[in-house]
């Protein structure tokens, strides 16, 4: 066997051996598991869709418009959402242009421990102009703004009570 | 989810559900490399493709394939790298052993000493098959590694028996690490390392709080209470006894090192490492001063080339060092080195010298990295494991594996005195191959449990019916 062939094979073998090591390290890199940060709504979208036909498609769609509204805050716009009645009284959520989902589903932004709330009851999101909108997601018992039951997405005036079951929330500055 | 969260992101555990296809691809790669090496050796030695290449490749592929199918069935979420790494090392070991079988020098040396020279590669292939069978057996029979926890003290007794047994059998090559029954001999220490890891894990899981918390602070170190020193003293005494009665530095170092690592992991106290290093140094020096066999090994380590001046002792270490030296960076090429000059134990204890000569520094580093990756996967498994017993067991097994590689490689390269241990998977020896396949199987089982996605959450309130407000 010629010297050249043997040299090529010798170096080739070393190259292949190292290639294996490198590929193995790549596998490890792609295998780093632990915590993963996902946007809510897209993660469980598929399996929820079968159980609750009503909300997820809209919710996902909502995510995008919610993102667009972010960062653009007008003067006098509400900065936080406050729970003023119900088991979660006193809870506040800062409004940062994200969609806030309300319901008994444990992946809601505000998980309502309320027998009269649906799992995906309502959501609150900013529209393109940064105006906060509340929308009922086809809940069983309805969402009330002041005293009127919501039928369409409705802008929320500052300080107006939104009632969901036994829980009341409002937007404040 | 707390309602004070300010953004709609969810942080969840994200385990890729299964990496079996990755494992299969890596496994195919891991089978091709040894076949390539085999062709390489054949071409270098006799200018033709070795006749057994196809059957060797098929055999190795078959073993790996069966292993893979069993992993798919019994440990579907297991780590994707452990099996390919073990297969690759085992396959390369087979090629290296076969390559040394072809050496006329070794055959002549054997003939001159009056015993029939027999090829080791077929035996090693049989051991590998047995090893994979063992691997499959462990995967199938061990439903959950936590079952082992029940046998904490039984495994202590078992490990003691395994460790003490060789004392009653005649010494082979200067060390009493063999149990010989008829023509059949095993090295119980190889199996003892797994059994004792089970004991340490079970014991430390229960006792770690006492060991970690009850301590005084002194000069930046946490000094454990006197009575908590008990277990480490007992293990230390045991490893010293092994050293004295079995004259085997490797086994003694392996057990003590493993215990110190597990103690450190269980308690997070650096002081244990300091104590462990001090105690092992004191013990090793103490024993080396009066035990002739150990002394001999230490002398050979301090001055490996003295054999050429005095004509006494063994030239194995000197030959191994010269093999590494003549290999250089790129090596001489498979089948073209002279590492068979090492003579006795060239294909077992000293097999790394063949790697060093024929694959050079580059190849040796790659092989050591492969070992490192196995240890890394073991540690990663320990990190991911949810139960403390599994964590400690995984860390103990990977520590044992890593320490064994260090002890052998260090011995062959002249970093520490040579010991009678074998390079896992690479070296010739049935006990070693069997025990290490079992070790990999347990690690795979733990990693399967660790990476298995968490079971679906219990039905939550949102699964209940919403009550309807009746006006």
TrEMBL record, chain A:
A Pfam family of this chain: FHA
Compositionally biased intervals (Low complexity): 51-65
Region Disordered, annotated ranges: 38-77
SUPFAM superfamilies: SMAD/FHA domain (SSF49879)
Protein name: FHA domain-containing protein
